[in-house]
Amino acid sequence: MIAQVNTGDTAWMLMATALVILMTIGLGVFYAGLVRSKNTLNTFMMCVAALGVAGISWAVIGYSLAFGEGNGFIGDFDYAFLNGVAFEPLEGQTIPHLVFFAFQGSFCIITLALVSGAVVERMRFGTFLIFAALWSVLVYPVMAHWVFGGGFLQEGGTLDFAGGVPVEMGSGFTALAAALVVGARKDYGRQALLPHNTIYVLLGAGLLWFGWFGFNGGSGVSTGNSSVLAFVNTLLTPAVCLVTWFVLDLIRGRHVTAVGAGTAIIVGCVGITPAGGFISPGWAMVLGVVVALPSYAVIVWRPRTRVDETLDVLAAHGIAGMTGILFIGLFAQLAWNGVSDGLFYGGAGLLGDQALAALVAPIYAFGATYVLLRVLGSVMPLRASDHEEAIGMDIVQHGEEAYVTGQGAILVTPEAGIEAEVPVADAR
């Protein structure tokens, strides 16, 4: 029997997809506020680039590799170039196949945009575009297949409601590999590299939280109970995480910071992403406390190392996503999710399934990205020169500035680098 399209489910999923696309712009605002002003535009442009690069790669081959039948590791080419992707629902769904394709594509886009946070202020934009195209084919679809497309983790019993494996751990441990290969900024460890606009940070975090209701709420692929549960939990976990972060900030430094508040919202949203449709609202609130602790600790510790993982994607996404995945193994509740109980409710086997995901996802994301960037770096430069980095990526990579002071604008020529400072009217 052919499944029938439900117009209510379809309308919600179209809206959820649009909300996730908005998240990519929100992420651009969030990231742009965290960098120095001379790199604002370049940082935002990396997120914008993800919309184009990942959007195309997902349609051409990424979706097929993630959701084609294939094997336990990777899908096949049945859906390449959207072959067979039309209006009829997939088995067990009530929305057009095209809508499901678009919704899942928005996940690939935002994950690629997240990765850029590890290499801002120094990676060449052209090289990033090539890396983005390769990564969105070789890394993300593989991990998505494992938990969403019938891969070995899904078949083995791992629960991941909205992307703890491919999105959160995928981006976090990719970011760590990218930071190690590309290397630290020239001034890292020698001078304070401070956020230039904390209002952008809070605005971006707010847009991300708003979009996350579509990200998690849409992952039930309907307007049913699992989507409702995930929607409510996406309100509760970040709220509790935010207040927990306030307390941690006050204990550590006697100030509640705007950057900390924005980060806390993200960490809470990430923590509930894998668990949203599997745990009760009460446990979702507990998760808000639990997920804050390891992420906060890694953010405090990381600047003491030589790893310039610039915008703490590892802590906010990799560590928080891993926490959410493991939390499912402890506190998932059949009475709420209709799927499985965690250890606390007698389901001892689920914790082992979740632990396996928390082991293999970081290994693959880190290893595949490390090899990819090493190979890419052997044929083209990954990063700008020290001189270009000192000028700022906005001028060097785009020939534009996020902020025009009114005094003049820097004119860049291919032959001479910085040529002169000229009046703004002339620079235009």
Topology, element by element:
Layout: H1 7-34, H2 40-67, H3 97-115, H4 125-138, H5 140-148, H6 152-156, H7 164-182, H8 198-217, H9 225-253, H10 258-272, H11 281-301, H12 313-331, H13 334-337, H14 348-377, H15 386-391, H16 393-398, E1 409-413, E2 417-422, H17 424-427
Antiparallel strand pairs: 1-2
Give a structural overview.
- With 428 residues, this protein is mainly α.
- The protein has two domains: 7-377, Orthogonal Bundle (Ammonium transporter fold), CATH 1.10.3430.10; 386-427, no CATH class.
- Helices cover 64% and strands 3% of the residues.
- It is built from 17 helices and two strands.
- The chain has a two-stranded antiparallel ribbon with strand order 1-2.
- The chain is globular, with a radius of gyration of 21 Å.
Features of the shown structure:
Ammonium transporter fold, two-stranded antiparallel ribbon, mainly alpha, 17 helices, 428 residues, globular, 2 domains, 3% strand, disordered C terminus, 2 strands
Could you say which structural class the secondary elements and strand pairing correspond to?
A: mainly alpha
- Record field, number of beta strands: 2
CATH topology of the largest domain: Ammonium transporter fold
- Helix and strand succession? HHHHHHHHHHHHHHHHEEH
Distance between the termini: 62 Å
The CATH superfamily of the largest domain turns out to be Ammonium transporter AmtB like domains
Radius of gyration (CA) equals: 21 Å
Low-confidence stretches: 407-428
Largest sheet strand order? 1-2
